[in-house]
Design brief:
By secondary structure, this protein is an alpha+beta fold. It is built from 12 helices and 14 strands.
């Protein structure tokens, strides 16, 4: 399969510089994680020896005269998804974005639109012209295409054919494997792809398992990984800034409920439910927290969603006081057949809730509320209770 790889180098760093121009001439470490588990997500190009996923203390040991910025993952993915949408709509529907700043595109079958590779690359550069440094490579496989892009001329592109000898001198750090595996390779004295390709398969498999065999194949320039295009579907995002930083799970839960209520208002007329839900928060010191909830059956009401969200918030503590809350619905679905209750009281309540839901749809917003206890210990009366839409 003919694969075209697009590298938007230092994508998180460029996103930060776009919204904070004062960082332009600074030496920056973009960090993610919390507490003692902070690792490098991106860094300024002049910081030699600092790599992605390197622990913060190791990065500071390389160079401690740097400024640190806490990563804003939702902001980066929002910008990156906009780029992927443009590529899908204009260039090819077969687009994969496995990680921030890396795009794989199926370049086969585009000859009727783009007669040669030069025309295809020209169209991509015209589409992506902006503040990002764009590197493009073409090869038969994702990893060779990635290496071609990584070693391409700044304003051109590189096509890899049968001669892959240049790979022998490349560092093992370019392999798409966890940082732990790269560190182990260096500890064993394997520093380049050429050394890895010449190493026997048996010891690699015994030490690394199936990953060792895959790394050796990649070092030979063989990558049979299939391109997985993004699934077409509606993505719904909602977020809100809290009036004051919150340390209580109940406060965060109420904010999450209000965002999910907005989603149900938007999808109610379609008769659809939530199949996959991503929760995220941003703390007072800009630390990011994110979890994914998947439902076996589409969640059609707030009751099903609330119990799962509450459990996740209790099991995975926040990294600090929360000031922003957001959700992202990545998959919707239709419910299966459902049998009504035999009991009159339950049927009556269901009919009442359906009438309230229809009233909300006609008016466009919630009409009937209940008073819910949130922070009964608070000295501020307004923070002790909150109004929650009925049935949510």
């Amino acid at each position: 399969m003919k694969i075209l790889c697009i590298l938007l180098l230092n994508f998180p760093l460029k996103c930060e510089m776009a919204r904070k121009p004062e960082l332009e001439n600074s030496r920056i470490l973009v960090l993610h994680g919390s507490g003692s588990k902070k690792v490098v997500l991106d860094c300024s190009p002049e910081l030699k020896g600092v790599q992605k996923d390197m622990p913060l203390h190791q990065a500071l040991a390389v160079d401690d005269k740097v400024d640190t910025v806490q990563a804003d993952i939702p902001f980066y993915w929002s910008a990156f998804n906009s780029i992927l949408d443009e590529l899908e709509n204009v260039i090819s529907p077969m687009v994969e974005g496995p990680e921030l700043g890396t795009v794989y595109l199926d370049a086969g079958g585009l000859q009727l639109i783009y007669p040669d590779d030069a025309n295809l690359v020209r169209a991509i550069r015209a589409l992506l012209s902006g503040s990002f440094d764009t590197w493009i490579g073409i090869a038969d496989g994702k990893f060779p295409a990635y290496l071609a892009a990584l070693n391409s001329p700044p304003d051109g592109y590189r096509v890899l054919t049968g001669d892959l000898r240049f790979m022998n001198d490349l560092s093992c750090d370019v392999l798409p494997v966890p940082m732990k595996s790269k560190t182990m390779l260096h500890e064993f004295g394997i520093h380049t792809l050429g050394q890895l390709a010449a190493f026997p398969a048996g010891p690699l498999q015994s030490q690394f398992g199936p990953e060792g065999v895959r790394m050796r194949k990649l070092a030979h320039g063989v990558d049979d990984t299939l391109l997985v295009p993004r699934k077409a579907g509606e993505i719904i995002e909602e977020n809100t800034m809290l009036p004051s930083v919150a340390t209580s799970i109940d406060t965060v839960l109420v904010a999450m409920e209000s965002l999910v209520a907005r989603v149900f208002t938007r999808i109610g007329l379609k008769g659809m439910g939530i199949h996959s839900l991503e929760l995220w928060t941003r703390s007072y010191d800009a630390e990011h927290w994110e979890r994914i909830i998947r439902f076996k059956e589409p969640a059609m009401d707030m009751k099903n969603v609330r119990s799962r969200v509450s459990r996740v918030l209790e099991d995975y503590p926040q990294p600090g006081p929360v000031e922003q809350v957001g959700i992202r619905v990545t998959r919707l679905g239709y419910p299966r057949g459902k049998q009504n209750s035999l009991f009159t009281e339950i049927r009556g309540r269901s009919h009442l809730m359906e009438d309230i839901r229809q009233l909300e749809l006609r008016q466009g917003n919630p009409q009937i509320f209940i008073i819910k206890e949130v922070e009964p210990w608070s000295r501020i009366p307004e923070r002790r209770y909150a109004l929650i839409p009925t049935g949510r």
